[in-house]
Amino acid sequence: MGTQLKKISRYGMVGFYLFAGANHFINPEFYYLLIPDYLPFPKLINFASGLVEMALAVLLLFDRFKRWAAYGIIAMLICFIPSHVHFILIGSCITDGLCVPEWVGWIRLLLIHPLLMYWAYTNRN
């Protein structure tokens, strides 16, 4: 990938995760319902998730930390898998929230999620 394209990709990822992380604080109720019932302290999990997303995004800006930030994003995305599975198990519909066809939940889990991991992996160097 060309140097300019790599920069665009990295800054795009920074913006994506800053926005996603901030959304945990702007719309926390949305995320509470995505956290599986078997996990305790959904408010803490949501807070930590948003904070980690934003921290890793900021670390991507620094050459010294971008490798660790990229691997951190991959690890974070792996930690989010139970939430995606939970969303599918509840019929891909959150009461008074996001309702999509079940296949959309599967696409998100099996296609989009791995692509986000790959995107992080390509931004490690």
TrEMBL record:
Keywords: Membrane, Transmembrane, Transmembrane helix. The chain crosses the membrane at residues 12-32, 44-62, 69-91, 103-121. One of its GO terms (biological process) is methylamine metabolic process. InterPro entries: Methylamine_util_MauE. One of its GO terms (cellular component) is membrane. The keyword Membrane applies. Residues 7-81 form the Methylamine utilisation protein MauE domain. It is a multi-pass membrane protein. The keyword Protein transport does not apply. It is found in: Membrane. Pfam families: MauE (PF07291). PANTHER family: DOXX FAMILY MEMBRANE PROTEIN, MEMBRANE PROTEIN-RELATED. This is DoxX family membrane protein. The lineage of its organism: Bacteria, Pseudomonadati, Bacteroidota, Cytophagia, Cytophagales.
